[in-house]
């Protein structure tokens, strides 16, 4: 008997709205200044009300927290600061009983150097199975052409270990040694950890840094065939024993290099679309749709059971690894005036500050997020327009406490403020007195209400998560226009939505060639307002600055009503 997941539809992740959050940042229940599982449980009503359907939790495992928990010291337990395994189980049940799925992190490329495996490995004799759980070398000359990801901190992917008397390999921080996937014991341990959480009922796994599992001479040690084989082994184990689960690949590579991670529908169900994200910001700043249409043209088709994961921001820097050198210069200039806003190859800011707190731009970007082919991922706090703190180290400026109300510590914690894991945002524009959930709940015009409405609207249609995409090419390049279409096999019905977005800060006219839809009526989805019928003439529209329209193309009433 396979173990069932909480979702009833095997393709549930295609219709999901994912909300990314950090337990530590969400709600503190015991006044120690650190968010925890009981706190998160107490905020599930809020998340259900927002309409999100899947909760992605950042790593919550025991960890020295030198990489915010991506440095794991034990794969099968909960960090005591956040609660117990029992608390996690209660959270999982509570989320499931609200119809929400749960996505957690499977960070298998590396562990913390405090993981008992590494502590044993450094002491074990060279060449022994215990030593070989990690990647060692007598010198630091191997794999010389492999890029350094955390370029602000690390000078090499090798670090010297005094105890072992050898160098060990690390693609990220030097306190995160890479596991050695050439050792079958590593895959065995990964399978055990994976099953531990899947048995408990976890619905989905984000495979962190999954492109870097193997190392081979003369390569960049990325996307190797051996890596794909290992992921397929994990997937086969999931398919053999569990139903309705999902694996999401974190692969920061070009669309053509990401495509193989879907396999023939037998590797990862989902993968983030990393290159699209910076190009959305480029298109907005340049007031030109080309960066978006160009990257989508380079995006290959994916198997039917697969899905892209779309995001505007996340817990990391806005990565610029997947743009050209010129585009990178442009992005740095346009979006990070202060050098403190930059880290590694990217920009460490939240959505609202990136777009100068401009409500129309925030809405426009979200309209793309919610109407592009894929599953949208909302980063906690962005639904209320939270700000960041570029004076905190690493990428911590975008990981500050959630702002619930104007009380002490933004309602996040009753601790003395100095005890909080990070200070709350306090500046006059983004500070918790100005930006918080309670205030926005009582304001019908707030960003929170807007986001909730848009999420609810998107969920009424299958076309956004499952349909095809076709760009129109009107002369005015400040306008991005596309048709989403979906034939629902189970109902024999179809949905067609025309999306039109104005990337400019000024009003824009546009004429659309809608010849394939002559006679149909575009109905604006937010207000259910019918627009003039489509004829064989170009269809004229006028768009206010940064505005967008979602128009469902419906058959004209005459054609559906029987003649009198
Ligand atoms: C992933 C995470 C990032 C972390 C890195 C190393 O890229 O998103 O936060 O630092 O892996 O574990
Ligand atoms: Ca706590």
Secondary-structure-derived class: alpha/beta
Distance between the termini: 57 Å
Q: Radius of gyration in whole Å, from Cα?
A: 24 Å
How many structural domains can be distinguished in the coordinates?
Answer: 3
Portion in strands? 15-25%
CATH architecture of the largest domain: Alpha-Beta Barrel
Mean pLDDT metric: 97
The level 1 CATH classification of the largest domain is Alpha Beta
Shape category: globular
Q: What composes the largest sheet?
A: 8 strands, parallel, barrel
In spatial order, strands of the major sheet run 2-3-4-8-10-11-12-16
CATH topology of the largest domain: TIM Barrel
Tally of individual helices = 17
Number of strands: 24
Helix content: 25-40%
By CATH, the superfamily of the largest domain comes out as Glycosidases
Which residues form runs of ≥5 with pLDDT under 50? none
The ligands found in this model are: alpha-D-glucopyranose, calcium ion
């Amino acid at each position: 008997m396979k173990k069932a997941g909480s979702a009833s539809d095997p393709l549930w992740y295609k219709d999901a709205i994912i909300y990314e959050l950090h337990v530590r940042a969400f709600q503190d229940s015991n006044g120690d200044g650190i968010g925890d599982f009981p706190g998160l449980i107490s905020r599930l009503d809020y998340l259900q009300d927002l309409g999100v359907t899947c909760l992605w939790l950042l790593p919550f495992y025991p960890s020295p927290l030198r990489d915010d928990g991506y440095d794991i010291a034990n794969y099968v337990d909960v960090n005591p600061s956040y609660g117990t395994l029992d608390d996690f189980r209660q959270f999982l049940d509570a989320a499931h009983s609200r119809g929400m799925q749960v996505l957690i992190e499977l960070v298998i490329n590396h562990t913390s150097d405090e993981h008992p495996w590494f502590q044993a490995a450094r002491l074990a004799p060279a060449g022994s199975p215990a030593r070989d759980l990690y990647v060692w070398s007598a010198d630091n000359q191997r794999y010389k052409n492999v890029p350094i990801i955390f370029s602000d901190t690390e000078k090499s992917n090798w670090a010297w270990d005094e105890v072992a008397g050898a160098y060990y390999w690390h693609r990220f921080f030097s306190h995160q040694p890479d596991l050695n996937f050439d050792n079958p014991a590593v895959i065995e341990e990964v399978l055990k950890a994976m099953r531990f959480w899947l048995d408990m009922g976890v619905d989905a796994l984000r495979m962190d840094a999954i492109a870097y599992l193997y190392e081979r001479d003369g390569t960049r040690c990325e996307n190797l065939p051996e890596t794909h084989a290992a992921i397929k082994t994990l997937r086969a184990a999931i398919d053999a024993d569990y139903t309705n689960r999902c694996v999401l690949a974190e692969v920061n590579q070009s669309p053509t290099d990401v495509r193989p991670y879907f396999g023939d529908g037998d590797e990862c169900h989902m993968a983030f679309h990393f290159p699209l994200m910076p190009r959305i910001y480029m298109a907005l700043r340049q007031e030109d749709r080309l960066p978006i249409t160009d990257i989508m043209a380079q995006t290959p088709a994916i198997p039917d059971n697969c899905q892209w994961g779309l995001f505007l921001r996340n817990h990391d820097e806005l990565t610029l690894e997947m743009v050209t050198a010129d585009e990178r210069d442009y992005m740095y200039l346009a979006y990070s005036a202060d050098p403190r806003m930059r880290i590694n190859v990217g920009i460490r800011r939240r959505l609202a500050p990136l777009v100068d707190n401009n409500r129309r731009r925030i809405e426009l970007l979200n309209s793309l997020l919610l109407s592009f082919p894929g599953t949208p991922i909302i980063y906690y706090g962005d639904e209320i327009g939270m700000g960041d703190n570029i004076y905190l180290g690493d990428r911590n400026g975008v990981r500050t406490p959630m702002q619930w109300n104007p009380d002490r510590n933004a309602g996040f914690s009753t601790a003395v403020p100095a005890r909080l894991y990070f200070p709350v945002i306090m500046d006059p524009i983004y500070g918790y007195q100005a930006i918080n959930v309670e205030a926005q709940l009582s304001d019908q015009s707030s960003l929170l209400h807007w986001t909730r409405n848009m999420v609810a609207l998107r969920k009424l249609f299958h076309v956004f998560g499952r349909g095809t995409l076709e760009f129109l090419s009107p002369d005015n390049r400040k306008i991005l226009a596309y048709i989403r279409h979906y034939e629902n096999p189970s109902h024999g019905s179809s949905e067609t939505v025309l999306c039109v977005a104005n990337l400019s800060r000024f009003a824009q006219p546009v004429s659309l060639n809608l010849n394939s839809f002559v006679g149909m009526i575009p109905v604006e989805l937010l207000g259910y307002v019918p627009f003039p019928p489509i004829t064989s003439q170009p269809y004229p529209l006028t768009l206010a600055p940064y505005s967008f329209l979602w128009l469902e193309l419906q058959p004209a009433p005459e054609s559906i009503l029987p003649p009198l």
